[in-house]
Predict the 3D structure of the following.
Amino acid sequence: MNAVVTAERAEEIISYNPATGAEVGRVPLATDDDVAAAVTNGREAFAKWKTTSFTERSRLVKQAREVILSQVDEIAHLISQESGKPFGEAIAMEIAPVLDLMQYFARNTEKLLRPAKIGIGLYALMGRSSKIIYHPLGVVGIIPAWNYPFSIPLGEAVMALMAGNTVVIKPSELTPLVGLKIGEIFEKAGFPENSVQIITGDGSTGAALVDAAPDKIMFTGSVATGKKIAAAAAKNLTSVVLELGGKDPMIVFADANLELAAGAAVWGAFCNSGQSCSSVERLYVEESVADELTRKIVEKTKQLKQGTGNREDVSIGAMSSERQIQIVEDHVAQFLADGAKIETGGRRSADTPVRIGVASTPKNALAGGTGDADKSVRAPLFYEPTVITGATNDMRAMQEETFGPTLPIATFTTEEEAIRLANDSEFGLTASIWTRDRAKGQRVAQQIEAGSVCINEVLYTHGIGQTPWGGFKNSGRGRTHGREGLMELVQPQHIHTNKLSLLPDAWWMPYSPTAVATFRKMTTTFASGSLVKTSTLLPRLLKRVKELLKK
């Protein structure tokens, strides 16, 4: 298909189902030349695509939505097979949110990017006007992670396309077939050749995409890899948007609806087996209700079924890789060593299927996701949802991103302490606050160092495509989604017009004592923004203009 760049050499990436160990499929490992050719082809396609009307772009995106709607179950099963997440979760957290994003930007991008008049103060009285128009960038390279292999790259691609860019996507080596499915969707919808290209491969392929100098890089992954992406992109002055890690806090006050807060904590910590950058990884509960909330959370956790993602009654699926499950084991062991207590879970699920297979080893770190460097793996990739009490911020596992199904619980006694604990992190992606007191919720939210803060909600705001997504501190740079995300995909152009071009400007050359006297007067009149003060400048201004006319 023309939406996919294939490699001539025989090297392959093998995709395995992390829940069963069965091979899902194989894809080629693209060469550096393949990647460079994709960017070149994207630039050639951009020359025409940028001239298409918003109406035509919208029509094609809506057609892509119809393609997805005709294949919802098929796509959800593929997502489940490659990522290990439950089939229902693939629909609820990947397909439905990106369909909403698609309809929103198909309908609203033209309005969001409409030329805008700029107020320029007193200059307008001189017959001047200014406006901003928006130009697409060119080729946008998208390097997504493996945890949301459908919604993240597809949503970013749609926004880039609606803004007039072309797209090259390098899916994670753990979920390459989902990436190819995205390319197939755009092709079936009728998008022009090379407007969307998929290049499959490992970390070396991601590195090659950055080195090929597209006009923008959108990366989702770890902080360490994000720093390498930024350093490599800087060589060509390629701008980047980095959506990196999280260690997201949930604050529960004593006046909160504890039943709802407990349900939210369980979902926020354990959906996608905790493999979300916005998962609840730190829960702070007011000390007076800590025991009651913990009891409710443990009860709800024990009710969850874990198993292969194809079963509709399964809530917790498999984890993505042996490497990721080892990080969870390390953090749980560290919690125990530091004196915390496991209330439920705390181990691999011994009664779940094992993964048997050979995985591809990433050649370097410039790829979405982490990869699985083990040559041969025979171990369960299911880890029980784990609730931990007695956690404190001085424990290493409360500072490092876990990215797994763990929920450590700590306590606080005052509002100020809760804010301090929540902000005590190198990350700042999302946070949530639970209280019946709306004023307190708003007050605390505005003091939390995070890109998104929810009050009596948790986790799901990445699914609201109308709102900006991104973090503070080491959680990233730039934004995706919302108008702010759309602005990352265009370059603004300022157009300034003199509608009364009859007389020379007073600040033109040649300078003279009259000119300097006029300039000095301007600092206290025109530059004040006051019309009354500026009126006193007019006699000197006219004298200066007459001087220029004589010369």
In short: Residues 5-10, 353-378 have pLDDT under 50 and may be disordered. The chain has three domains: 4-244+484-492, 248-348+383-463, 503-550. The first strand starts at residue 4 and ends at 5.
